[in-house]
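Notes from the 1:1 (GR / supervisor)

We went over the backlog. Supervisor wanted to see one worked example end to end before approving the batch request, so GR pasted a single chain during the call. The sequence is below; no edits were made to it. Supervisor asked that the structure be written out right there so they could see what the output format looks like.
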Amino acid sequence: MTNLVIDIGNTRSKIGLFQENTLVEQAIWTDWTLAELLRYGNQNGVRCVIFSSVSTPDTGLKEELEEYFNVLELTHETALPFQNLYRTPLTLGKDRLAGVAGAQALYPDRHCLVVDCGTCIKYDLITSDGRYHGGNIAPGVMMRIRAMHHFTARLPEVPMEMPENTIGDSTQTALQNGAIRGAVLEIEGFTRLFQQQVAPLQVLLTGGDAAFLQGFLSIHHPDLICQPELTLFGLNHILRHHFQ
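Structure output shown during the call:
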């Protein structure tokens, strides 16, 4: 069965074409029309579609797609392949749901910590018994850099570059160490805290800054994997749980 998954962001959308659990094609669309989406789905023999959007639910898109495919929109009411223990599911970001679903799909028999290194850095724990326990949210690297510039009178906005020396010898390197090395130390610290709860722990990095931050982490392979398409795998996992 061929599935199409669509992760709709503010400025771009990521799409993935799956054969069962295998991601066979992926792309980023910055500007697309419904006609193009329908044509792409029909040309590839798609039967089922799942989409998730950062904005409010798009009933028009769902209705249009339903004329051609079996369609699922990810919301807080969607049936999930794991038990959600989050006390406020209505406020839980769909990207976090998709991330832990992706971890479960790729590592179904392991405790997984998903670290999504995007605008915010999000930490989410799913255990091998299929229970999502929640996690933590912190500012992302660029948010830290820009906040120090925005909320002070004289601190500049610095490039996202890691200094060689752990002790900043200029205002620029001091800010970079605080923002970037601080984020690295935070990831390592939270990982240790989560490992005190469950072990062994598979750590999955995803998000736009994941590859950049991975090179500075002291967490060792194979306990640390960078999986940029984790959300796509998670959406497909949720879709398969719903329709199959």
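Supervisor's comment: The chain has two domains: 1-73, 85-228.
Batch request approved.
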